[in-house]
TrEMBL record:
Pathway recorded for this protein: Porphyrin-containing compound metabolism; bacteriochlorophyll biosynthesis (light-independent)
EC number: 1.3.7.7
Ligand binding (Mg(2+)): 46
Name of the protein described by the UniProt record: Light-independent protochlorophyllide reductase iron-sulfur ATP-binding protein
Cofactor(s) listed: [4Fe-4S] cluster
Species classification: Bacteria, Pseudomonadati, Pseudomonadota, Alphaproteobacteria, Rhodobacterales
Task of the protein: Component of the dark-operative protochlorophyllide reductase (DPOR) that uses Mg-ATP and reduced ferredoxin to reduce ring D of protochlorophyllide (Pchlide) to form chlorophyllide a (Chlide). This reaction is light-independent. The L component serves as a unique electron donor to the NB-component of the complex, and binds Mg-ATP.
Subunit structure: Homodimer. Protochlorophyllide reductase is composed of three subunits; BchL, BchN and BchB.
GO molecular function, one term: metal ion binding
InterPro entries: NifH/chlL_CS (IPR030655), NifH/frxC (IPR000392), P-loop_NTPase (IPR027417), Protochlorophyllide_ATP-bd (IPR005971)
Pfam families in alphabetical order: Fer4_NifH
């Protein structure tokens, strides 16, 4: 008997041949609008997520942000500190979740935004999908989602494995953060393909992209026009955004300089757009050769 004879046939369960941590139907988030934020590592997903959470809160929405990165700094500017992770707190009680209280793992940030850092397993020892699943399970057990209007998952780097695609099992819409350069757009192209694979079996659909840390948007717009995608917002490369991270604050807590006020307005406009609902986007991601021909050469 071949060792592969013991591998079950998984084709069609979660995209074509996908193997990952699967969602327990009882853990679905049904009481809030759920967004997953993706993008190339270092592109500014946490900054985007936190300021978007702040913008939703300024619109009067009850917001919960879930960081899904072992670095656990997604909610840093909302809380002003690195909060303990769900996985670390579970370890402290030997994974007896019934011993935990909401205040052990949910922390209040700017303007009442609820902040959770899922954390992650040590490198090479487990699947991030398990951590995300345990986090959502805890939140539901403690009824923390009952009075929440918006949930934002801030997800580690690119879609590198089924585990870190796990938030897509909960999301209504996926938002991609990119910059106006080849590497970021190449990563976005891969993420589009991953989200569409999940959308075969899950409710998640693509919302669009945010051009971040970019003076111009010509390359992003050229890609979007080619594949049929939507750019929903543009966040310029401002030193004020960098300073806000250093000050452990969102842009909504910074001084009212003209450039800061303009970016705040763009975040509020993005929040309004997402809350109103975006038509599901169905772009056609490019094969590697074609994206190189479109953006990679003069």
């Amino acid at each position: 008997m071949s060792p592969r004879d013991e591998i079950p046939l998984l084709r069609g369960q979660d995209g074509e041949g996908s193997v990952q941590v699967h969602l327990d139907p009882e853990e679905k988030i049904t009481s809030a609008k759920v967004f997953s934020v993706y993008g190339k590592g270092g592109i500014g997903k946490s900054t985007t997520s936190s300021n978007l959470s702040a913008a939703f809160s300024m619109l009067g929405k009850r917001v919960l942000q879930i960081g899904c990165d072992p670095k656990h700094d997604s909610t840093f500017t909302l809380t002003g500190c690195l909060v303990p992770t769900v996985i670390d707190i579970l370890k402290e009680v030997d994974f007896h979740a019934e011993e935990l209280r909401p205040e052990d793992f949910v922390f209040e940030g700017f303007n009442g935004v609820k902040c959770v850092e899922a954390g992650g397993p040590p490198a090479g020892t487990g699947c991030g999908g398990y951590v995300v699943g345990q986090t959502v399970k805890l939140l539901k057990q403690h009824h923390m989602l009952d009075d929440t209007d918006v949930v934002i998952f801030d997800v580690l780097g690119d879609v590198v494995c089924g585990g870190f695609a796990a938030p897509l099992q909960h999301a209504d819409r996926a938002l991609i953060v990119t910059a106006n350069d080849f590497d970021s757009i190449y990563a976005m192209n891969r993420i589009i393909a991953a989200v569409q694979a999940k959308s075969v079996n899950y409710k998640v659909r693509l919302a669009g992209c945010v051009a971040n840390r970019s003076k111009n948007t010509d390359e992003v717009d050229r890609y979007c026009k080619t594949v049929g995608f939507n750019r929903l917002a543009h966040m310029p490369d401002l030193d004020a955004i960098r300073r806000s991270r250093l000050k452990k604050k969102t842009l909504f807590e910074m001084e009212d300089a003209e450039d800061v006020v303009q970016v705040r307005k763009e975040y509020v406009r993005l929040a309004e757009t997402l809350w109103a609902g975006t038509d599901p986007s169905a772009p056609h991601p490019l094969p590697d050769r074609e994206i190189f021909e479109l953006l990679g050469f003069d």
